Structures are given as structure tokens and as C-alpha cells.
Amino acid sequence: MTQGEISVQRISTAIRDDIVSGTLIPGSRLVEDILATRYGVSRVPVREALRTLQSEGFVTARRHAGACVAAPTAQEAADLLDLRALLEPMGAARAAARRTDAQLKVLRGVVRLGRERAHRDCPGDLPRLDGWFHETLARAAGNPGLTALLTQVRRKIDWMYVVERPARYAETWDDHGAVLDAVARGDAEAARALMASHVARSLPAYRPRHRQTAARPGPRPVGSGRVRSAQGA
């Protein structure tokens, strides 16, 4: 990977993170000069990063407005949850057949930590550990295309939804443990079924983060705000 490609990847990550966190709100304009100043780079990697994010669905190009943060409709948001319900069980089944010993070791460590935090009612680390579990499981599927799609879907769900605190965190981590056991013994069908059940049980906890309607809001320019370097983003 060249230095230029690394720079584009870094800026793509920084802008995507700001979109997911809500720093850049849906419908707001993404002006190259302002973004270049914000992230401390030239316009060239910003322009390429915006093209990457447009292909992922985080950015849209509008006539007379240029690049804007995408403003998903309620239907598009709902479709993401449906897509997750299809892809996550598939990924778990593939992981049961293709996971490496190193990936299995990481998954066991994450589940152990998650269960410890859940039983001690220490929720602060649990969202990060949950993401780590699902990301490692996606990589364990051994299919770069599927892994990339799963990662993109999860990022967009994080952007569009807030997950309400479950009544019992331990049940979520018991689900993760059951999926892990199936993956460890190479039982693809059990891994698929257990992940499907886990995803279905989690759906009621998702609440839209933004007001989504069929009509797209008009663009608002992104303010220059605090200048931030994208190094390490």
C-alpha cells in the first residue's frame, strides 16, 4: 500500500467515524477545503476519501450541493437490520469451518472478559467487547468480501441506531458463548442457528438514532469546528 493510499484510508476512517458519532450530521455538506483543514491534510486525500465513503453509502453527491452526509430513510435503516439477520448467521457458519486457532483464542478471551464484566454489572466495556467479538467472528469467516460487508453493515447500524441497555447483559454473553462453542467444535449449522436466534432476540433493543423520513433534509454546510488531525484515527 502506498503512502497516498494509507492517507486516503486514514481520512476515510476519520470522516466515517465523525459521521457515525454524529459529529457530521445527516444532510450536512462536506466541503473539501473545510475537511482538509479539519483533518490537517490536502484536498486530494479528502476527495478520494469522499468517493470511498460514497461507495459505502455514508456520503451522497447532490446536484448543486456536492458531497453531503447521507440521510437514510426509515426503510433503508430497517433494511440494514434485515441484512444483518442474513449475514451474521452466514458468517458464523463460515467461521465454524474456517476459523484459525489464533482467532479462536481471541474469541475465547473476548467472551471470558464479556462474561466477567456482565456478571459484575460493569457495562462500560461491553459495547467495545461486543464489537470485538463480532468483528473477530467476521474475520474468522475466511471470506474477505463477506467480512467487509459485515463490517460495513455493523458500522452503518451503529450510525443509524442506538442500542438500549438489555435487562440482563449476561444473556447476551451466554449467546456469544454458545456461538463460540459451536464455532470451536466446527458445527456450522449450530453456529448459524445460534447466531440467528441471537440476532432476532437483539432486534427490539434497536432504536433509530436520527429522525428518518422518506424526504431527505436539505443540506447544511459543515462548520470548520475544531481542527483535528486524523493521525491514528
Summarize the structure.
The chain is mainly alpha-helical and 233 residues long. It has helices spanning 3-21, 32-39, 43-56, 74-98, 101-119, 126-140, 144-160, 169-184, 188-202; strands at residues 28-29, 59-62, 66-69, 161-163, 206-208, 220-221.
Describe it.
- The chain is mostly helical.
- It has 9 helices and 6 strands; from the N terminus they run αβααββααααβααββ.
- Strands 1-6 form a two-stranded parallel sheet. The protein has a two-stranded antiparallel sheet with strand order 2-3.
- α4 packs across α8 and α8 runs antiparallel to α9.
- Pfam families: FCD, GntR.
- This is GntR family transcriptional regulator.
- It comes from Streptomyces catenulae.
| Helicity range | 55-70%
Q: Which percent band covers the strand fraction?
A: 5-15%
User: What's the story with the biggest beta sheet?
Assistant: 2 strands, parallel
What's the Cα radius of gyration?
19 Å
Q: What is the arithmetic mean of pLDDT?
A: 87
How many angstroms does the end-to-end distance come to? 17 Å
Q: Please, how many helices?
A: 9
Largest sheet, spatial ordering of strands: 1-6
Organism: Streptomyces catenulae
Keywords: DNA-binding, Transcription, Transcription regulation
Region (Disordered): 205-233
Protein name: GntR family transcriptional regulator
